[in-house]
Write a structure and sequence with these properties.
alpha/beta; elongated; Rossmann fold; Elongation Factor Tu (Ef-tu), domain 3; 10 helices; six-stranded parallel beta sheet
Length: 314
């Protein structure tokens, strides 16, 4: 995959492109990507995805608003773009200065003059530019003047609900993992580096990998216990993950992600792992004794083993 930063991509008028943050690259985004590739093939043109880093809402964060939590870091987004067949990605560095560019200037100076554009695909609710004044009407007006087509894609529905990054975030924060994974079209995942912990799990006979997300804005699902999997050295390992404050042992204020991999004895320190969340098992809670905690771990493990068996059968 070709990755271009700060509009370094060679100019080519025969380009079909789409623009967005694509947080999570969920099934709605995937539908746009699929259509983008179809259009490029039909027109014999280059397919390009234009995205932004950092996420605009992080740069434009207001002091009185909760900070946004990302479904995907830029590294994870690029992995997903490649998975779904994208060969060219332009990453525009988003800043306060860039946010002041008008929607018309963005189209004229960046998309048409620097990248090249014969056709643009937009989502059903696509708004862009300063104060988000850019819309389908403006694009069609500029398209007639500058010689590019505009195609609008319909919203993708899950039941009667439109699939969106915001709704997926809410589902994950409410421990509705099946709903989130269904809207994503793949298991929600977190990439991070394995860091040194208190080694409490090792002492108790349940060693864990403490996975620190690479991006501090990455969303961790709701506190609780999950069935997860990771591909390590080409082999899939299942595990039990706990997200939370570890109230039985600590007074932590910031949730952590710990994974106890089943049937695996390997030193994972300083390795970068991708943790796929497959099933929500239970909420996190405080136990009155270590024995009660360990008894619950056995119960959680048995539930996970049942799910693993079902997954392997299917």
């Amino acid at each position: 995959m070709n990755i271009y930063t700060d509009i370094t991509i060679p100019f080519d008028k025969k380009t079909v492109l789409t623009v967005g943050t694509f947080d999570g690259v969920h099934r709605g985004h995937q539908a746009i990507i699929k259509r983008l590739l179809e259009c490029a093939q039909e027109l014999g043109a280059r397919a390009v995805v234009v995205t932004f880093e950092p996420h605009p809402q992080i740069v434009l964060q207001k002091p009185d608003r909760e900070p946004i939590h990302l479904l995907s870091s830029i590294e994870e987004r690029l992995q997903l773009f490649e998975k779904f067949g994208i060969e060219n990605v332009v990453i525009i560095p988003f800043s306060q200065e860039f946010s002041q560019i008008s929607s018309e200037d963005f189209v004229r100076e960046f998309l048409v003059s620097k990248i090249g554009m014969s056709k643009i695909l937009i989502g059903y609710d696509h708004l862009f530019g300063k104060d988000r004044t850019g819309n389908e009407s403006l694009l069609r007006t500029l398209g007639e003047e500058l010689g590019f087509e505009v195609e609008k894609t319909d919203a993708l529905l899950e039941g009667n609900e439109t699939i969106s990054s915001t709704k997926i975030r809410h589902a994950l924060m409410a421990a509705h993992l099946d709903e989130a994974n269904g809207a994503l079209g793949f298991p929600y995942f977190v990439e991070g580096i394995v860091v040194e912990g208190h080694r409490r799990g090792h002492t108790l006979g349940i060693p864990t990998a403490n996975v620190k997300p690479q991006n501090p804005n990455k969303l961790l699902p709701a506190n609780g216990v999950y069935l997860v999997s990771s591909s390590i050295d080409g082999e899939t390992f299942y595990g039990m993950a706990n997200i939370g404050l570890r109230p039985t042992f600590t007074d932590d204020l910031i949730p952590t992600l710990e994974v106890h991999y089943l049937f695996m004895d390997m030193n994972l320190y300083e390795r970068i792992l991708r943790v796929d969340f497959l099933k929500f098992i239970r909420t996190e809670r405080k136990f009155e004794s270590i024995d009660l905690f360990l008894s619950q771990v056995v119960e959680d493990r048995n539930i996970c083993l049942e799910w693993i068996e079902n997954l392997n059968k299917s």
